[in-house]
From TrEMBL:
It comes from the Bacteria. This is S-methylmethionine:homocysteine methyltransferase. It comes from Planobispora rosea. Pfam families: S-methyl_trans. GO terms for biological process: methionine biosynthetic process; methylation; S-methylmethionine cycle. The lineage of its organism: Bacteria, Bacillati, Actinomycetota, Actinomycetes, Streptosporangiales.
Length: 287
C-alpha cells in the first residue's frame, strides 16, 4: 500500500500562509516557495510516501490573470516540481506527483465540485495542454490528474495522455455521492475510460466526503484503487470557508477500513494535515 500526503494548502495555512486568493496554494509559489518545501517535508516526516506538487491551481491562465508573463508562469509551474523533489531528496525517499488540477480550480467558484463548465472536451484539452506538457517534462515521477468533476474533462485528460506516451499518471475524481462523480456521471463509467491504459497506475476519488468512500471503492475495476478524501468538513463556496470538524484519529480508523476494502493508495485532501497522515500510517501499519 502507498500512503499519499494530505492537504498541502491546509498545511501551508498552518505554516502561516494567507491563501485568501484565487491562486490558492499557487500564491505561495510566488511569495514563499520555501514554505512549500517545508510542507512537503512535514508530510514525508508524518509517513507520506508521495509529495503532490503545488501546481493544482498553478495554471498559465491564472498567473497571466495575476499579471505575470508566460515565461514566469511556466517557471513557477516547474518550480512546484523542483520544491517537491528537493523535499523528497532531503527526506531520503519518496516520489513526486505533479498535480494537474481541474479547470474548475482556475474558475475558483466551486466548479471542481459540480463540473458546471463553459468548455467542452476540445476546449478543456486545449486549456490544459500547455501546463500538461510542462509537467510531463518536469522530471516528476508521475502526473496526478485530480479532483476531476466532469466526464468531458476526464476524456480531455485521456486525450492528453495520448500526446505524452512516456508519462505515467493517476486519475482521481471528485464525487457528489457514493456512486457518481460531481457532474452526475457514474463513477464506474468514468473510471472505465482508463482501465486499459497501462500508463495509468491508479484510478480513484479525492476531495470527496469520507462517508462516500466505501461505496465508491467498489465502483472502480481493473486498476488499483486510490482514495484521498477531504477531512469530512464541508466547503461553503459562497462564503469561501470550511464548516464542520475533523478528527485525525477517526480519519485514520476509516482509512484502515478503506485499505481493507481494497484501496491501494490512501491519503487526504482538503483540511487534512500531517497528523491525519500519521494516523493513517499508525492505523494501518501500527506506527
Amino acid at each position: 500500500m502507498v500512503i499519499l500526503d494530505g492537504g498541502l494548502a491546509t498545511h501551508l495555512e498552518a505554516l502561516g500562509a494567507d491563501l485568501r486568493d484565487d491562486l490558492w496554494s499557487a500564491k505561495v509559489l510566488v511569495e514563499n516557495p520555501s514554505a512549500i518545501r517545508q510542507a512537503h517535508l512535514d508530510y514525508f516526516a508524518a509517513g507520506a510516501q508521495v509529495a503532490t506538487t503545488a501546481s493544482y491551481q498553478a495554471s498559465i491562465p491564472a498567473f497571466l490573470r495575476r499579471g505575470l508573463t508566460v515565461r514566469e508562469a511556466e517557471d513557477l509551474i516547474r518550480l512546484s516540481v523542483r520544491l517537491a523533489a528537493e523535499a523528497r531528496d532531503a527526506h531520503g525517499e519518496g516520489a513526486v506527483a505533479a498535480s494537474v488540477g481541474p479547470y474548475g480550480a482556475y474558475l475558483a467558484n466551486g466548479a471542481e465540485y459540480t463540473g458546471d463548465y463553459d468548455l467542452d472536451e476540445d476546449g478543456l484539452a486545449g486549456w490544459h495542454r500547455d501546463r500538461w506538457h510542462i509537467l510531463a517534462d518536469s522530471g516528476a515521477d508521475f502526473l496526478a490528474c485530480e479532483t476531476i468533476p466532469s466526464f468531458a474533462e476526464a476524456r480531455a485528460f485521456k486525450r492528453l495522455l495520448g500526446e505524452t506516451p512516456g508519462v505515467r499518471a493517476w486519475v482521481s475524481f471528485s464525487c457528489r455521492d457514493g456512486e457518481h462523480i460531481s457532474d452526475g456521471t457514474p463513477l464506474r463509467e468514468a473510471a472505465a475510460l482508463f482501465t486499459a491504459d497501462p500508463r495509468v497506475l491508479a484510478v480513484g476519488v479525492n476531495c470527496t466526503a469520507p462517508r462516500h468512500i466505501p461505496s465508491l471503492i467498489g465502483r472502480i475495476e481493473g486498476k488499483p484503487v486510490m482514495v484521498y478524501p477531504n477531512s469530512g468538513e464541508t466547503w461553503d463556496a459562497e462564503n469561501r470557508r470550511w464548516t464542520g470538524t475533523a478528527d485525525p484519529v477517526e480519519f485514520g480508523t476509516a482509512a484502515a477500513g478503506w485499505h481493507a476494502a481494497g484501496s491501494a493508495f490512501i491519503g487526504g485532501c482538503c483540511r487534512t494535515t500531517p497528523e491525519h497522515i500519521r494516523q493513517i500510517r499508525e492505523q494501518i501499519y501500527g506506527g
